[in-house]
Amino acid sequence: MKWYFVVLTVLGGLVGLFLLYVLLVIVSSLFVDKNRIYAKRSAYYWWIMQSALFFVMRVARVRMHLTGTERIPKDGRFYLVSNHRSVFDPMIAIRYLRRFRLVFISKEENLKIPVAGAIMRRCNCLPIDRNSLKQSLYIFQKGKQLIESDVVSLGVYPEGTRSKTGELLPFHEGSLYPAFRAPCPVVVSVIRGTEQIGHRMPFKRTDVYLDILDVLPASYLEGKPMGQVSDEIRSEMEDFLKSKKEQ
Fold first, then answer.
1. CATH at 111
2. Residue 82: exposure state from Cβ atoms within 10 A (0-12, 13-18, ≥19)
3. What pLDDT score does 246 carry?
4. Cβ neighbours around 79 below 10 Å, total
5. Tens digit of each residue's pLDDT (9 = 90 or more) over 46-89
6. Does residue 73 sit within a domain?
7. Which residues constitute the domain of residue 235?
8. Number of H helices, E strands in the chain
């Protein structure tokens, strides 16, 4: 048997398996109710999302630098807050913090993306309409319930949108609502480097840094104004980013 025939057979088999996987993902997405907020976890859809993100990280050629995870509570759910620089931010956090069952509150448009949006929804990601206070409060309440029920840990970007300059934007203090209502620990994190991925993939690696700066226990939130805690978190993030810029 010629060596090139073996190579072509193996490659053909791999391509076939990949196409079968893609078909599986597409068909699975059709069984997701696009208007439902899911209250229970699905191990099957979680596997689909994690396997898809595995491929994305390989294509994007992300070289991950993860620090501070020892600070994250190992028992119970938490609420993660982070700065926001790229569409890759939540994908990276969900993938590399997967053992904590982390998902995100995301703008409605993201959960309407064909196939991917359905998988996100079934994995308990929550859609938020930033222009509707009533809908936002409803989603925050659902987030609180997911945390209390030990279904998932939730992440949010208090800036509300991506920063195009890398500088922190003003925070929406109301974004901390689920953590205060649950209550649960708040994990403070900072991500850097993701804004370079789109310019470098797939030919160059991109170093991405996800640093867990602090964990505010639920007891710390008691009796404190939400705005005060929001300002404290933002200051901590800003100081860290400045220190890295000066290095």
1. 3.40.1130.10
2. buried
3. 63
4. 28
5. 999 999 999 999 999 999 999 999 999 988 899 999 999 999 99
6. yes
7. 31-246
8. 9, 7
